[in-house]
Amino acid sequence: AFGNTREMPWGMLIGAYAYFAIISTGLCILAVFSHAFGGNQMAPLANRMVWLSIIMLFGAFAVIGLEIQNPWRMPLGVVLYPNVTSNIWWMGTLYGMAVGVMLIELYLILVGRFKLAIILGVVGAVAEAFANSNLGSVFASLNSRPFWYGSQLPVFFIACAVLSGAAAVVMFTHYSHLLQKREMSKSTFLGLQTAGKIMVLMTFLVALATAWKFVNAYCGTDEMIMAADAMTRGPLATSFWVFEIGIGLLIPCAILVFSRLNSIQAMSAAALMVLVGQFFSRYNLVVSGQIVPSDYGFVGVPQYLAYTPTAAEYLLVVAGLGVIGLGFVIGERYMDRAFTEEKTH
To answer: What pLDDT, in 10s, does the model give residues 280-298?
Structure first.
């Protein structure tokens, strides 16, 4: 049902899992900074960010669980057969711990026990940050894939997490007010402006890190040069230049700068573009690292391996989005008061 092959075992669904998990990490980190350092302008957004972080992880778990086709084995394997030398084991364990801690944190927020909620929020954010860096190291520790290999990806994923988290809270807060047909308060708008400033900064930093990744690739081995060529002028060029760079970084940054963060519609549109671009960034990352055949150079071996996502893969991505959309609506229906209270901490 999937377009994966023995030569290219990872495809769109691995990218989609990483995409949702990275957004969750960014939301959790921003939420704990807003909770732990009270008085900042993003404080009114913090409770919503906790719930959004949880449902993003649920979306990620739904995608990866259906991708491995035996989802009931994953939690059993993590508990019954731990492998402490495996990045993937640590990633799953830490993300599982993080979502459990955040669910308890959310409950404590709802019942008004904020001091304990802040402590658990810090624990959850630390777990998410370590899980996110382990997710990056799943790729970065594979020395057989030169385009991934190195120390950059774990840190790059954290930067993308902060960018994606800021974009997600802007977009979902705007959609919440549209759904509830409620006028946005001044404090909430100031919080979104702060998130917009974070987006401007992080689009620049992510673009800079992306540029250096390609500079490093073009100074590297033949495999690294071929993988970089696949993105800049090869089969991934359109998704890289148009979606990852254009729609995902340059246009949103320009919209935010020229609107001077005074328009919620402009900030929401820029946030949506960032999230679209980050999806293509994860897809490009997963495919580009595998697209060069390990036995390239031999007679009959193509320059690049072919990979096209199937309808089933697209449907599972939609399913992940559906889980997140359902969670968002449930949060708006049953936890709206906690999301809109401005002085909860």
So the answer is: 999 999 999 999 998 887 8
What are 220-236's pLDDT values in tens digits? 999 999 999 999 999 99
Render the burial of 34-63: b for 16+ CB within 10 Å, e for the rest. Answer: bbeeeeebbbbbbbbbbbbbbbbbbbbbbb
Tokens of residue 78, six digits: 């993590």
CA 53/CA 331 separation, integer angstroms:
12
Three-state secondary structure of the chain:
CCCCCCCCCCCHHHHHHHHHHHHHHHHHHHHHHHHHCCCCCCHHHHHHHHHHHHHHHHHHHHHHHHHCCCCCHHHHHHHHCCCCCCHHHHHHHHHHHHHHHHHHHHHHHHHCCHHHHHHHHHHHHHHHHHHHHHHHHHHHCCCCCCCCCCCHHHHHHHHHHHHHHHHHHHHHHHHHHHHHCCCCCHHHHHHHHHHHHHHHHHHHHHHHHHHHHHHHHHCCCHHHHHHHHHHHCCCCHHHHHHHHHHHHHHHHHHHHHHHCCCCHHHHHHHHHHHHHHHHHHHHHHHHHCCCCCCCCCCCCCCCCCCCCCCHHHHHHHHHHHHHHHHHHHHHHHHCHHHHHCCCCC
Distance CA 289, CA 224 (A): 9
Rounded Cα gap, residues 180 and 182, in angstroms = 5
Q: For residue 63, give every residue at least 6 positions away whose Cβ sits within 8 Å of its Cβ, in sequence order, or none.
A: 13, 16, 17, 20, 316, 317, 319, 320
Map tokens 């520790």 to a residue: 141
Whether residue 327 has pLDDT greater than 80 = yes
pTM exceeds 0.85: yes
- When pLDDT is averaged across residues 1-27 and rounded to a whole number, the result is 95
Domains of the chain: 12-340 (1.20.1630.10)
* pLDDT above 60 for 342: no
